Fold this sequence. Notes:
elongated, 2 domains, ProC C-terminal domain-like fold, 12 helices, 57% helix, alpha/beta, single chain, two-stranded parallel sheet, Rossmann fold
Amino acid sequence: MARAMGGGLRASGSTAALIALDPDPQARERFAAETGGRAVTELDDVVAAADVVVLAVKPQLLAGVLDRLAGNVRPAQIVLSIAAGFTLSGLARRLGSEVRLVRAMPNTPALVREGTTVLVGGGAATAEDVETARQLFVGVGDAVVVQEESLLDAVTAVSGSGPGFVFAFAEAWLRAAESAGLAPDLAERLVKQTLFGAAALWRQSPETVDRLRAMVTSPGGTTLAGLEALEALGFARTVAAAIEAATRRSKELSAG
């Protein structure tokens, strides 16, 4: 995700200087190659140089990084966390209530500049700090600010986990297409383009999604037959259950 953010800044024409820390030499090389930034091996180098310190590490590694950061964050720095499971209050307890904190929940389509990121400010962060953080994600997709951190659990379920749900649907669709007699390469081509085309139509059309669904659903036609089969098996209830389960798990992780 750090490479995606850096690459997005580079593609947008930003003149921001980028610096990253990673213990893996190959990861450092990839960051430098893809973003034009500088990769280092010491946390002190990042803290000394950065105006915005981005915590783009695995949640299980973040506690150790926070321990090393504590007491070293400058008053003018913004600390931006994209790690799941660490609330703003939890970050403030480790880094200090005076630190200008922003928490963000991006998703994996940011890797192809089609991401969705939701941000919320906390600690001593100002509105300008939050906007500075938001601009880091504009180059990799859509980025929106919310005022309530509690919304991030639902955000995690809807947009953070959402690509996984879409890919699971695509997997089932592919298997069904092959069972219907299509060759695997043709099935993949049709399913992939249909997903992309439907999403593009929704994005560009002034119509609501229920209207778009109705437009392709002729009385007595094939789409209606398929939709009725989905609903008979509880399709809408299953989707709702997935969102509820992911939201609940996000709350559990944040509480832990």
